[in-house]
Every structure is written in structure tokens, then in C-alpha cells.
Amino acid sequence: MDSAKIDQIIEKHRGKSGDLIHVLMEIQHQNHWLPRDVLHKVAAALDIPFSRVLRIATLYKTFSLTPKGRNEVHVCTGISCHLRGANKLLDAVERATGIKPGETDADWRFSLETGSCLGSCSIGPEIIVNGTHHARMTPAKVEDVLKEYP
Amino acid sequence: MTRLHSATELEQLRAGILSSRNPAKPCIAVCAGAACHGLDSSRVANAFQTEVGKLGPDAGVEVRVTGCHGYCEKGPNVVVGPDEICYFEVSPEDVPEIVDRTLRGEVVERLVFAHPDTGEKAVHMGEVPFYKHQTRLLIGDNIRIDPMRVDDYLAVGGYAALAKALFQMTPDQVLDEVKKANLRGRGGGGFPAGRKWETAKNAPGKDKYVIVNAHEGEPGAFMDRALFTGNPHKVIEGLIIGAYAIGSHRGFIYTRHDSPQLIQHIEQALAQAEEYGLLGENILGSGFDFRVEVHYDVGIFVSGESSALMRSIEGLPPEPRPKYIRTSVAGIWDKPSNLNNVETWANVPQIVGRGADWYAGIGTAGSKGTKLVSLSGNVVNSGVVEVPMGTPLRKIVYDIGGGVAGGKAAKAVHFGGPMGGSIPVSLIDAPLDFDELAKLGAPIGAGGLLVMDEDTDMVDVARYFLEFLTNESCGKCVPCREGMRQTLKVLTNITKGKGREGDIAQLEDLNDVTGAACLCALGRTASDPLKSMLRYFKDEYETQIARGSEGKGSEATGSAAR
Q: Which partner from A72, A131, B33, B466 sits 20 to 30 angstroms from B57, CA to CA?
């Protein structure tokens, strides 16, 4: 965790209570999760109750209150990917990583998420690892793709 | 960049940009839209820049990285102007040959479109089947615009409509023009935009807001992103014109946080528009002030609903409220707030620029203009399609989409995502029209068109959509939170082969309650896909339930076997 960068983000929004979602989004993008002490700092800087910060932080799916693995694996389960076999792809990813959506493995290697829709339906089904798309996936290709992410 | 103080200065700037460009000089447009980006088009773009860079400053060709071209299935897409030669599935290795041939005025035959059956080649955009049946008024400029450069938008006539509105029209005249054009909201409801504007304009209070809804959370819909990422100024120009008509001085853009490109392009566009004096104080010297700020959805579907979206902009949890009073009267901070989606705003400049009569000449009696459609599912050519309203769905699915993938037969087409509906392929000659499709039970919604092949399990599709909405319900009202859960339970049981007699009656009962009693459109229309299935595919439900009561589980899960 880079506390200096997080503090910088919080400082930018100090006193602006309407910026709550912005601050949390920037911290999430930077740090990949929202530690409790950081949420306390946000509450103090924006001068809003901690309970309200927690309410927003737990409501949106993007915000994570637990640390993430080194590699964030995202399987698109939008309708187009679903029609093209996203379920079987997800099964294969679960088998390869040993985790279910929302979980992180014991070695902190992978975190798995599902979600829809990323708007690249033409190249589905796909998995996205650390922002890189792996298009037109099949269950058979999963092992090889994940090997690239130690 | 210098600040512009009048419409004349804007036209002088435009003339300067155009005279510095040679329209005959070949320009290689590399698509960086969502699908092409996923296929690593940035490597192709880099290769072009390197290759052309080697030729020095006087290279007889230039490279432009653009937004979505539309033919996502065959990405990475490259279009070489001015003749619009289309190359498909381009890899970095093809780049030197393309540059070399382009300089010599030749075509790389092996990369152009070849018809899958006849092998017949199509070189130019106007000949490629996917493009030739379209009318690309909104998305067509994407190939000519680097979204990071406002000058490219000015070069295709950008902001001329804004100048016309500010200097040749009163706000009332702008409003009348939009009303006369009968522009209907593209976000899902199809409500006349002019009437909405009028409500906000006439609502009491001095502070009024205008909002671009760029949330686009509907699975299978990606056309708004393609338009907004590829041509952000078009949407912003529409928004400024709308603000002028309504009398608003503060605008909001509410969009997705998960596309870095979209965020970058919007922010750059706002900054450049402000530098030119097209935004901010005293726009083009007209005395009209208008500012825009950007807010983000961070992952919840219901925040695309208008009243929920406005709560989110206030920094509060995005929960819808009952709309006894419309948001156009009491929206953000309870001030009149006019919300339209990306595509609706993007239509405004051409209505003002070319006139309502021209616009109303396109489309059907009740649905005017063109419509962007995200074509996906079991279709050969998926991508972003733009056709005049009234176009038969058959033309979209077969002539443009190339029919069903894998040589299978079509079973149904589905419009409107989780709040839309499916119609059987026998109704595929129905026109793309707000009212006609709503009557059939497949309302256009935002414009996500899914093609489903013969192997699709219609119970599973309804279950899929309902599961999506159950997870996305904000939980504020009981009929939505609990009603959908119960419906989902019944559907899941049927797909698992545990269906029971009486399930269909129970589903219909639940549909009636959620349809009538939910607080917002999410809950009220959540049962729409299921209703359409029970209307057209009831036998499939009955068969699966019968199989369940015989104790045999179902194996079918669509054409997902690949």
C-alpha cells in the first residue's frame, strides 16, 4: 500500500462531502482495496460520518474491503458471453484457480470476479486479467492464459 | 489554443484547420474501440505510427487512432481514407505492406472483405455488406475523428449547430425544433425529449441541470460507449444546445468508471472545449454560461435509473424514489433536472443544424431518425449498427449481421436486455420502431439486440436476466427485492428439472405483482423478458416442467458447448 499516494488523493477532496464516491473510486483504482483505517481518514477529511462512508463502500460492487491477489481475473458473464458459453469458461477458471467469484487464493496469486457487461461482446466469451483482454476464450485455453500470470 | 469570441471566429478557425489539411492525402484510421482494443489494436496502431514515422515529416500518409468503426467482429479494423478502403483482422505484421501499398495507391487484397459463401471481395466501406445497409449519421464520423483532438471534430462541421442555436435562434426556437423533430429518448423509455425539456424549462426555480446518462449498464448494449468514446464532442455539443434551450448553466455527465479510454476522452474533450470557449463563461461571446462535471458509477446497475442516478451525483446511495413528481421538476438537490442518454444528446446537433423537417423525414410515423443497435449473441457479424427507424429486424440480423453463427437456425431475437423481451424468429419482419416492438413485447430499450440460435434454452435466458436483476436490485422496495427472488427460485427449479405443476400460474401471479407494485422501472419491467417468453415460448416451459415432474433433469444450457 502506498500511503503517500492515498493521502494525496484524500487531500485533493478535503472538505468536499459530495466527492465521497470520487475519493473511494480513486483509492480503489490506486490500491485495489479499501482498508478500514483509510475509510476512517476519508470520513474525517470529508467531514462525514464513518457509517455513511461504509454504506457507500459496501454498496458498490467495485469497492473491495478485503485485499486482492496479485492478479485480478475477471470473467465477463454478460448475456452475449453467456450465450457464447461464459458458464463453462467460468467453471474452467474456477477449477484452474481453485477459487470462486469474490474470493482470493491463499497464495495471493489470483482474485476472481465476474461481471457484465464490458461492451466487447463481439470478442466474447472473454476473461480479463489485470485489464488485459483474452478474447474468444475456450475452457481449454484457460490454463495456458493463467500460466502467464505468476 | 485561443479562446473564440464569436461565431465568425469559430468559422475562421474551422477554415484554417481545413486549409491546413489535404483532403486527398491518405489517412489510415485504426480502430481503438472496446472490441478492437481487446484484440490488441494498440499494437497495430503503434506499428503504423512507427512505420509512418520512418518516412519522416513529409510522409504521404497519416495515421489516426479512432473510436469504434462498428464491425467489431472482424477487428482490429483499419480504414484507409479518403476512399474508405476497409481492412479487417489486421495484425502488426500486416502494417508495412498496408503503408507501402497505400503510398502507391494500391489495395492489399488479402485483407479486404471476402464474402464467406461466394468469396466475392468488397474493398470500400460502401460495398461491405455490414456497412452498406446502414445509415451512419451518428457513428459514421468515428473513422474521421481522433477523439483526443477537438480539431478533428471541427473539421467535420462540429459546433456549427451550437453557433447556430446561440446566435440565430432563441431558446424557445431550439426547443420547438426538437419537439417538431419528435426526437424520442434513446435510453429505454422512448419518451419525447422535447416534452421533457419543456417540463424542465417551465419548472419553477432558477437553477436547472442537464445530465448525460452514459451509464449503459444493460448487458449486451455497447453502442453508447462506442459513440461517446469515439466522438465525445458530438454528445457535449448536444448537451450545451439542450442547456441553452432549457436555461441551464450546469451539466453533469454520469458514466462508467471501468473504461479508462472513455474517461480520458471525455475529460480531454471537456478541457479542449473550455479552452476554445465552447464551454464555460460567455460561450462564443454569446453571454451564455455553461459548465459540465463528470461523475462515475462504480458498479451498480440501478444507478442508471434517473432518480437513483441523481442521488448518486449528490454523493448518496443510488436508490430510486417514487416519481409522483418527475425528476425534470425535482431532480438533483430537488432542482429541475433534465436527463437524456448519450445517443439522444448526440442527435441534437444535427436536428438544430439540418432542421427538424429533414430529421422527421427519416424513420416511421412515431419513431424518427436513426437508431444505434448493439448487435450480438449468436450472430455472424456482431458490432455497432446504425439504421433508420422502421428498418425490418430481418435486415439487421441477416443483411447486416450475416445471419446466425455456426450455420444454425435462428430461434428468437431479444431486445432491451434484462428489462426487454424476446420475440420468435417468425416475427423477424417487424420494424425497428418504439411502439411496434413494444406491442410485440420486445421494447427496444437502449438498443441491445441479441440473436439466439435454435439451441438456446428460453427458460435459462429468462432465469439469467432475472438473476442479474436480483443481484442489482437496490433492495429498497419489497415487491422488487422479494418478488424477484421468488420468481428466480421457481425458474431455477425449472431449469434444474425440479419444476412442478402450477409453476407457470405462480410465475404469472408474481409477474403481476412486481409489474404493478415496484417503485422503479427496474422492478416493474423485471418480469418483461419472462412475460414475453410465456407469450411466445410457453411450450418450452411446459416441456421442462413436465420433464421435472417426471424426475428427469434438464441438460440444456444453450449453445454454450463450444
A: B33
